[in-house]
């Protein structure tokens, strides 16, 4: 912002604006404190959930292939034939769930190898670059393994209930199973949204590089002032601030009510897919456009006009044509983020809300890992001058991932998602006593699945004809 801030104070101005924004957010947060409801932390739900998962993982329940896996597990130490016999049998769902969580934890730890080596161990530059490439590749492998292990067993995790007789023998708490079921059934949505957060990261990466090689001039003169490329990214928060009130006050009432959670997530992923697809074809069109030619010296020799930010030749296409992908991605975030908050707040037990929000933030980290993996894979095609490279290849990869995520969400995740009332019915059918099919009661002779929280209808969003 040269007219307002001198170049010598640009860094200070950037951090000062960020600090002012955070201060404003803090003031807004504190101003609404009288509307908040204070509730003491309750660890009992988390303990019940962990205990239910532990019992489901460690109990050799069922028959057939599941018991066969537990029997062949002991043969793994008897040479190569024992290992092959063990691997030939599909592990039970509880074991696959545990292995998937282990892959997620390892991926998160491996992602810390590069910053630790750089900041703590002071590894030299060449070795540091090789370590970064190896860590990103290993993270990608672990994430793919985690999805393959977790996705099938979390769609409808009835395996958490090991059976009425086994449950009573192992003192499995039906309420703990219900809480674990409610939380685990949200994981497929979190895995699908990982592709969304990866695509969102391109807004601050490749999109900025593409933007800085468009016509950034405020008018057509060769000596016209050029606006900084990062200023266009302000459309992201501004559109979010404008679209959320418009959706809540105008669009949803016109449609008869707020759409269900899964419907809003579907529309959000579709907006993100449209944003990335637009950028793919825009980059191809930008490279085919001629470069702006301007006099380069007193002899009136013509040469390419270079950008003030990246010192790369500018194409004859206005920077405003890069506004649609930012706006589409912002609308997608405005649809998905409130839906995620509602999913992790209204569709789980009160004691597990913070855990679900932590899972939501963890998916953002995994999305950043996936984005880094895509960058590393196409690193040789992303050159300083994008006219000599293929910056659209990472965008096509992100579009393919979003297409797969959208297809999986529409055809697999959304149809199998159960509301909180439906999970209660499922758990009651699993925990029954005798032929009378009476509800399985806890120690206080209260129904194990009775809602101790506020009435569910008061927490549900009004649904329209979706």
Report on this structure.
- With 466 residues, this protein is mainly α.
- The chain has two domains: 44-187 and 420-459, no CATH class; 203-416, Up-down Bundle (Growth Hormone, Chain: A), CATH 1.20.1250.20.
- The protein is built from 18 helices and four strands.
- The protein has helices at residues 10-31, 44-58, 65-73, 79-87, 93-111, 113-119, 125-154, 164-169, 174-184, 187-200, 206-211, 235-254, 261-288, 323-346, 353-377, 392-416, 420-430, 456-459; strands spanning 293-295, 302-304, 432-433, 438-439.
- It has a two-stranded antiparallel sheet. It has a two-stranded antiparallel sheet with strand order 3-4.
- Strand 3 and strand 4 form a beta hairpin.
- Helix 2 packs across helix 9 (174-184), helix 12 crosses helix 14 (323-346) and helix 14 (323-346) runs antiparallel to helix 15 (353-377).
- The longest helix is centred in the first third of the chain and has 30 residues, at 125-154.
- It is elongated and about 90 Å long.
- The chain starts with 9 loop residues before the first helix and ends in a 7-residue tail after the last helix.
Short description:
The protein has 466 residues and is mainly α. It has 18 helices and 4 strands. It is 61% helix and 2% strand.
